Amino acid sequence: MAAFKFELVSPERLLVSADVESVVIPGTEGEMTVMANHAPVMTTVKPGVVTVKAVSGSEERYVVFGGFADIVPAGCTLLAESATPAKDIDRALLARRIEAARADLSEAKDDHSRTKAEEFLHQLTTLEGVVIPA
Fold this sequence. Notes:
By secondary structure, this protein is of the alpha+beta class.
């Protein structure tokens, strides 16, 4: 299978810069699998898990908290608001983010802000169940 260049970048650091076989991205319109020679597209990314499949067949998972991905036939760059290897995520970190989202929801001034805050809170609570099963 053909490889392509994938980079996962957060404000703190470059987490991945490698040739990979495929990447599954949690786009706001749904999950999408990116492979070599993908049609050009730019998408926003919701909180979720990015699964990176190396050319060797091994997989690594990263938790992202929003951002956007730029996909071209030769590669994909995902600029995340925040990103962490899934193995490094803990319940306390997600709990803090969920509490902050609840505070944002309670402080929402209009329907549009309230709807966006509810959506983000839902994404975080769903992510908690995926990353750290009960």
